[in-house]
Design brief:
single chain; 12 helices; two-stranded antiparallel ribbon; 48% helix; globular; mainly alpha; 4 strands
């Protein structure tokens, strides 16, 4: 149990590269002169929820508002990077996967990297030793963006394999990406509760959910995908 707890608690070894971003415009003139660099112009926060305001700064969206989008969802309302959405969409298209579903999977798994820059598709490294040995080990740590691109690409390939396995069941194929087990994290209470910080997931005690039968991850991804498709600002970026 100790080894499992230790392994599952390890953060991704890939860290985001340092960014040099221009200071946020302060005056009306500065916002006007910034042009498209800060699309849209200075946001009107008057109708924002406290959570939306908090996440605006914590995610880094405030540094370059035009490069982020807000999505409302019962459990995943947050700011998401347009650049990351584009990376996920491109990876999906390269292997014939619906880009909307793969971007949605990235949001469901890691908030499109908000929670884990280095492993935004939440690959379980030990499940893919060949990928780690043949691909990841050959990319130097000095190139975190290339490492991240490889991880996203591998995630798209895995989803493509699951879709071939379940060609007539979109939700089942997406659920299979997360695993085919009845429970999560091997059903080890200490690991599950350590990872989740709670016994509840998807609104229920995790012990009362048959994950393969109920497909909660798959259903959540499908719901997020449908929400994304309704957002005009993403049409040219993600659409096939």
């Amino acid at each position: 149990m100790d080894w499992l707890l230790q392994y599952m608690s390890q953060p991704s070894p890939i860290t985001a590269p340092a960014k040099s971003t221009p200071p946020m415009p302060e005056t009306t003139a500065e916002w006007r002169d910034a042009g498209t660099k800060y699309r849209p112009q200075k946001p009107d926060m008057s109708k924002w929820t406290p959570w939306q305001k908090e996440r605006f700064y914590k995610t880094g969206a405030s540094e370059e508002p035009g490069s982020w989008f807000w999505m409302n969802h019962p459990t995943h309302s947050d700011w998401y990077s347009l650049d990351m959405a584009s990376k996920f969409a491109d990876a999906a298209k390269s292997v014939g996967v619906d880009p909307w579903d793969f971007v949605a999977l990235g949001i469901s798994e890691s908030g499109l990297g908000n929670q884990d820059y280095g492993n935004p598709t939440r690959l379980w490294w030990k499940a893919y030793p060949e990928f780690v040995e043949n691909v990841m080990s050959k990319i130097p740590d000095s190139k975190p963006e290339e490492q991240q691109k490889a991880v996203i690409g591998q995630g798209a390939k895995i989803l493509a394999e699951k879709i071939k396995e379940y060609p007539n069941d979109r939700t089942r194929a997406i659920q299979a990406y997360s695993g085919k087990g009845k429970t999560i994290y091997g059903g080890h209470p200490d690991v599950v509760e350590y990872q989740l910080g709670t016994k509840k997931v998807f609104g229920k005690d995790y012990r009362d959910i048959d994950f393969w039968r109920d497909m909660p991850q798959g259903k959540r991804v499908v719901t997020i995908s449908d929400i994304l498709k309704s957002m005009p600002e993403l049409q040219g970026l993600i659409s096939k």
